[in-house]
Amino acid sequence: MDKNIKVKNVIVKTAADFFMPIALIFGLYVILHGHLSPGGGFQGGVIVAAAVVLVYLGYGHETTENVFNENLLKKSETFAAIMYAGFAFLGIFYGANFCRNVLADKMGAAGELFSSGTIFWMNFSVGFKVLTGIGFLSLIFFGLLKEKNNESK
């Protein structure tokens, strides 16, 4: 019976190792191209945050705690919120309204990566905030699971 559990762990680790780079690259692609195609900061942030779940599933709670620093995730989420607010206030600083896309005419041609002005940067900051927030919440849930498993033993 113990041999079957070990084989399952190898399969889960291999699957986590295989899908983690795919989730990271695809999630970053969705964040960076969210203003040009379906998707955006929220969707891409959740996809990138799936890497935390993959590390947990493949390697367990201790490795997940060692790889991802909770305090750094909290500080990064705060930074991302400030970053979003800063880009949103650019509209007011340029004499328009809050969240106004004031840099659109100063950027590249339509369809290029940086062509949407402040929309790109606001989308990026939303993605960064979501990936740090969901990653932090995942770590909290995994900690609660560990406590529950320790209590039941």
TrEMBL record:
The protein's topology relative to the membrane is: Multi-pass membrane protein
Q: Which GO terms describe its cellular component?
A: plasma membrane
What are the transmembrane regions?
12-34, 40-59, 79-98, 118-145
Cellular compartment(s): Cell membrane
Keyword set, alphabetical order: Cell membrane, Membrane, Transmembrane, Transmembrane helix
Q: Which InterPro entries match?
A: CPA3_antiporter_subunitB (IPR050622), MnhB (IPR007182)
Main localisation: membrane
Q: Which positions fall inside the Na+/H+ antiporter MnhB subunit-related protein domain?
A: 11-134
Listed NCBIfam families: PRK08386.1
Homology family: Belongs to the CPA3 antiporters (TC 2.A.63) subunit B family.
Q: What is this protein called?
A: Na+/H+ antiporter MnhB subunit-related protein domain-containing protein
Q: Could you tell me which species this protein originates from?
A: Fervidicella metallireducens AeB
Q: What is the lineage of its organism?
A: Bacteria, Bacillati, Bacillota, Clostridia, Eubacteriales
